Amino acid sequence: MSEVIKPYESEASKREQIEEMFDNVAHNYDFLNRILSLGIDIIWRKQAIAQLKELQPKKMLDIATGTADFALEALSLEPDQIIGIDISNNMLEIGRKKIKKRHEQDIIQLYQEDSENLSFDDNTFDAATVAYGVRNFEHLEKGIAEIHRVLKPGAKFVVLEFSKPKVFPVKQIFNFYFKFILPVIGKVFSKDDRAYTYLPESVKHFPEGDQFVEILRNTGFKETQWIPQTFGISSIYTGIK
Predict the structure, then answer these.
(1) pLDDT tens track for 80-121
(2) 14-240 belongs to which CATH class?
(3) Quick one: which of 28, 8, 5 has its CA closest to 20?
């Protein structure tokens, strides 16, 4: 069981705190993403979507869709429908504006939902994706099991998540950047004292690599893979129902 790391020191549940945090930072979330990742997150998303190219899914679920960057990237797969869900309505509103601007409302629909209590029927989707969201699940195993439930047999699950680089000097640079630089930049631009100190804390405690692969297997996924990206700063995980 992974340790529960929360953004704020309050009695509210992690789910409630995550919703509050993303509502707070939604207005400049995309801008900060590009700045704080030096734009590399765009490449990582493309690599994650490429894991679904052979499958060519027609109905997709994007969990923790946020401002819909991953859902919009998934259009390259030419699906019939992409449903994006997130607990932060402020993030979803920005996502809806981006989708409308690109005239993709017929394919992408966004809904406010909790990943641990999905409203969809069993065996609904051909693929599911989540980019930088599984760290924020209050009950990680429960959330993964719920995603497994709504996937069709043979469907693929793709996760993109931060991990901790192990190679010198990337490890040292990454740790310094995450601990000292990122929180300062995040605080200045987001006006939320905790949002970008929570990020490195959540990455530090996340069961990455073989541990996360084991969780995928324990929740029913097979043919699991772990694919490190850019010296291990991010990782792509995949599994088949």
Answers:
(1) 999 999 999 999 999 999 999 999 999 999 999 999 999 999
(2) alpha beta
(3) 8
